[in-house]
Structure formats: C-alpha cells, structure tokens
Design a protein that fits this description.
Bound molecules: iron/sulfur cluster
Strand order of the largest sheet: 5-1-7-6
Order of helices and strands: HHHHHHHHHHHHHHHEEEEEHEEEHH
Strand content: 5-15%
Oligomer: single chain
Radius of gyration: 24 Å
Structural class: alpha+beta
Number of helices: 18
C-alpha cells in the first residue's frame, strides 16, 4: 500500500504537501511562542522539556522546568541525583516513570557518551525513556538532524491538510503520517520545521471543532478546510473506558507528624509516599476498626471531601478521613512533619486536595 492508500487521501493533495513548508516556516518565525526551553536550546534542556511536555500542558510545565534545571543543571547532576530528590522535583507532574527513566538515561550517557547526549537519532533511541518522538525532537532541534518528530499535534494537522479519514489510533496510520512528515523536512531547518508543525497544532489547528482556520498560514492548502470537514478530523477510534477504583484515604496526624507509607517499587506511582489507603469506600466505623487493628488510638475524626483523580487507564474515586491519633509504631511507614511533606517526601498529586483539607483540620 502506498502512503495515499494508507492515509485514505487524494494522491494529488499528498504530492502538493511540500508547498506548505515555506509558509509554515515563515509563520513559525513570526509567531513562535517564547518558551524557556527555546531560549537556550541545549540538548539537555530540550530533552528535559520534551519529557516533561509529554501528557502535560506547556503552562503547567514551565515552573517544573525552571525548578528542575536549577536543581539539576547538567546530565551529571541528573545521573547522581537521589531518587527521593528526583521524585520530589517531579511531584505533581505525574507519570513518574518518566523521571526515573531520565535518571537511568543520564547514567548511561555518563558511562557511554562522556556526559553529552549523543548527536545521533539511533543512539538517542537506545536511552531509557527516549522513544521515536523524543529522539526525533532532540535530534532535529538540538543537532539539526532531518528526522521527524511526529506528535498528536502533527497527526491532527496532517490529517486535516490531507482530509485524511484514516484512524490515527492505528500504528500503521501513525507510521504513515510520520513518513509523510519525514518527506517534508527541509535539510536546512529540520528543528524549526518540526517545531513549526507542532506549534501550529498546539496554537492554531487545535483539537475538536475550534481550530483557528481564519488565521492559519496553511488555509489555502488545507483540503479539510475547503471541504468543510475540519471538525470531524482527525478520525480516532475511542479508547476503552477507564477502570474505576474506589478508595478510602485516611490521614493520620499525631504529635509526631503525619503517617506516610511508601508505595511498592513497581507499578503505578512506584516508590511514592501516601497516607493510609484502604480499598473500597468504607464507613467511618470500618475505618476505625482498621486503625485500631494497626495499634492506634483515635482521638478525633473528621470526614473529608470526596475527590477523584484520573490516570491514563484508571480513575480513583476517593473518600477521605483525617483521624488524629495517639502516636503508635508506624509499621512500614514514617512520621512526616510539615517540612518533610513540603520538601522531602514525594506525595502523588492524587492526594493533594485531601491532604490540604486534612492539614487545615490538623496542622502539623
Ligand atoms: Fe488546521 Fe484550519 Fe489550518 Fe486546516 S486551515 S490546517 S484545519 S487550522
């Protein structure tokens, strides 16, 4: 199957696609957002930004990015960082395996590449956590290598330009769009071109029914615009619905601080710290029974709000309690004071609302 067949699009539109390159680059030069990682685009800074930007909005990333680079300004610092410090720097960004993989990659870069990210797409791909997209972004932006960096924004822009009804959830369609983007990359500006495609998708050719076609530099080349099909594109089959898990989250403040327990080293939120978490939505009486079984004496109990937190494949529906307790031996856990909670132990943002409410009730 050729590219046009794979993308269910008109071969002539595909052949005309190179005409979009110069208008796109001119638009990018005039309209690119000023972002911290674009100001001093070293390979390390681009790498950090690209990993942080996965699944996270630009505005949310800015603060984390500044804090991360201030604490770990070079590959060597990242390679040497303690996991507790790393997770605290990442706290709230989610997808913590990204941070762990960066640390493993940094160690590999120190061992195999003298502390400098390799200027090779192939070698970048051998580093933990650096997939096709991230390797393409680093290689093209930092090293000027003409390889594609095809993210969801690019899928959307290309699907609309080509009026392609191919399902972008399918790996074969993603590969065809990547190949299409790869054929457009100008050898003298691969980084700018890749960033321009992503920028157009992020700021103009935005999802759903609200792209800003009236100010789009590619409007004259866009078949979806001409045919009035913009809102229906791209086509993407729906993912399976998320699994819903019910939890009872119990904060245990005492004279010594608040009890925290470390999650297992594998799986969701691996190695992070959390309050007492009981499966299911339990009654206050059932919570008390669990606490008594732990050897604690409850002094006072407050019911907290119900909250939820959405992960990629699962949704937690949480009800909370804060139970002031007489100090007891915290098996497999620690007592954390206010400074520890703020600066030392990485606590998943899933618990943030409940933690804030518990600490308002029982300040440490
Ligand atoms: Fe996207 Fe509209 Fe531009 Fe087409 S004209 S690329 S749909 S913003």
């Amino acid at each position: 199957m050729n590219l046009a067949e794979q993308l269910l699009c008109d071969p002539q539109t595909l052949c005309a696609l190179p005409n979009t390159v110069q208008p796109l680059l001119a638009w990018y030069e005039a309209h690119a957002r000023i972002l911290p990682w674009r100001q001093y685009p070293t390979p390390y800074r681009i790498w950090v930004s690209e990993i942080m930007l996965q699944q996270t909005r630009v505005e949310a990333v800015k603060g984390y990015y500044a804090r991360f680079l201030a604490a770990l300004p070079a590959v060597a610092d990242l390679a040497a960082v303690e996991e507790e410090v790393l997770l605290k720097l990442w706290e709230g960004l989610g997808y913590y395996s990204r941070a762990r993989n960066m640390c493993r990659a940094a160690r590999q870069i120190m061992a195999e590449h003298g502390g400098t990210l390799p200027a090779s797409y192939k070698q970048l791909r051998t580093l933990p956590g650096i997939g096709e997209y991230t390797a393409g972004a680093i290689a093209s932006i930092a090293f000027g290598i003409p390889v594609p960096a095809t993210d969801g924004n690019v899928h959307r822009v290309l699907s609309r330009l080509l009026n392609s009804e191919a399902d972008i959830a399918k790996p074969a369609v993603k590969a065809a769009l990547r190949e299409t983007e790869g054929q457009l990359i100008p050898c003298d500006a691969p980084g700018d071109f890749n960033q321009a495609m992503m920028e157009l998708g992020a700021t103009v050719c935005v999802p759903k029914a609200s792209p800003h076609c009236s100010i789009c530099p590619l409007q004259g080349y866009c078949l979806a615009y001409q045919r009035g099909t913009v809102a229906a594109l791209p086509v993407r089959t729906k993912k399976k619905p998320r699994k819903i898990e019910y939890k009872t989250v119990v904060f245990l403040p005492s004279e010594k601080g608040i009890a925290l327990f470390q999650r297992p080293n594998q799986g969701l939120l691996a190695g992070m710290w959390e309050p007492l978490v009981l499966e299911g939505h339990l009654t206050q009486q059932e919570v008390m029974q669990s606490i008594t079984a732990m050897g604690a004496a409850a002094i006072e109990t407050t019911a907290l709000k119900e909250t939820k937190h959405i992960f990629t494949h699962v949704e937690w529906r949480m009800q909370g309690f804060a139970v002031k307790v007489d100090t007891f031996a915290v098996q497999d856990g620690i007592w954390a004071n206010q400074a520890d909670v703020l600066k030392k132990y990485a606590i998943p943002s899933a618990y943030r609302t409940l933690l804030r409410e518990a600490l308002q009730q029982y300040p440490l």
